[in-house]
Amino acid sequence: MNRFSFTYTASVILICCLGCLLSCSEDLLDINNDPNTSTQLALPNTLAFAQVSLVSNLLDVPNTNAGSFSRMWYTTAIRNYEQNQGTYSESWVNLYSRPLANLQAILDGSSEEDLGYRGIARLLKAYTFSVMVDLYGDVPYFEALNPEVTFPSVDQGEAIYADLLLQIDQGIQELSAASGSVQGDMIYGGDRSKWIKMGNTLKLKLYAQTRKENSINSVQGFNQLINADLISSASDDFQLKYGSQQTPNQNRHPLHVNHYNQATAYWMDNWTMANLLNDGTISGVTGRRVSYRTVEDPRLRYYLFRQVPGDGGGSVVTCAGGGCPIGLIGNGYLGRDAGDPSAFSNEGALIATFGVYPVGGLVDTDAPRTVMASDGTGRGVFPMLTSFMVKFLHAEMALTTATDGDPLALLTDAIGLSMEKVKNFGAEEMPSIVGSPYEMSSEAIAAYIADVQARYNATESEEEKLNIIMTEYQLALWGNGIEAYTNYRRTGYPDFAETSPVMGNPPYPQRFIIPVSELETNPSLADYSPDPFEPVFWSQP
Hints:
TPR-like_helical_dom_sf, 8 strands, mainly alpha, SusD-like_2, 18 helices, two-stranded antiparallel sheet, signal, Starch-binding associating with outer membrane
């Protein structure tokens, strides 16, 4: 990891921060009239830069690869899980040197009068490191942001998690005791009550993720928190919303920029599309139905946009005869099966792409066409902690542990919250959809939920029920591949191996690989040999 002293980091923030922020929000110029008058006035810029750089770096290689591993989408570069020790070099350095360094600068440089900033920075730092543990397993933590330590050692994931729980508590205490205003907060606009909900929800998630191992009393901790002040509605969701500007500074959602500029590096995965269509699609690999449902997902048109009708005028293979072993699910939904070697870069104008949610694109209104940069608003979001996640995690815990609650009722609530979020997002970003035949209707949502309930009640084993909960959770997570990857490794579901296995059956990566640049330049890691197939601590009983 490249080392940066905090004196250097703080000095460059004011120079580069405003330029970066202009490319990420349309109203940040209201933060300060004169950002050079004092260190105190630098806090809003530092906080905003940390938030933007955190989300932008997570949405790059980490989210792309995690989403590919969890069957949201497909990339040619990693279709058979070909990650190597150079795959994450840039994102690894960027996470430490940008969001984490800036958050630590707030913690080290703020005064007792800045408890609001410190509480937010502490919670953001805890969230960032929790994601890094989820992805890498073991990472430098206790010494990593200490300017007096040139070569930080790697720490075990369970030890980091234990400390993160303490840091979250401290962050909540700081926010509760704070009195001054917080500016530069691009996520909650300085609303400390929402940050406290975020902290409680993050802690709840960490307890849920550690339910299978015994270093943390997860069930007790979860039960104590479930009635706390949590994220309970979409207005509380922990997410960053991008802007709609393209010039002179681009501030649209990165996936909108990538896909609506025809620069896409990945396709939609056939497993996901089949589980949204629910039309009886048969896996060309197993000969089995890919989805257990029979009702089309109302989110389909909001999640995906078709660029070609039917078989694209003969330009792509059809599904005549039932099976779709390569590429096309049918009716214009051109994607790929994981491991499929047949994708070509010139298919960008043919493949199904992102819709309105979560990238700010278009709702599919049965008028397929090649998308352009001017289509949609680009005002997408990266949902990191949401109200529907709380319900899905509670459903999982109620099914698998001694946690109170009816798993099916909680699952029903979770799906309903996801549907509501997607529908409202579509109405906000594409108002013309409201009242049209393509708007998500209450009747369609009710029919879908009833179908899931029927399938859940028809199952007999806990494992079958868990598969349904986690499959529905994954579909609700559309756009956040990191959480989907974590869920799959923790629970083993959705059951990809049974419904749509990866072509060639390569070994499944249980964690990201710490880059060789870190291993070779940090003497403290000379004896550390990361194994990408070793499960992260929370997936081991």
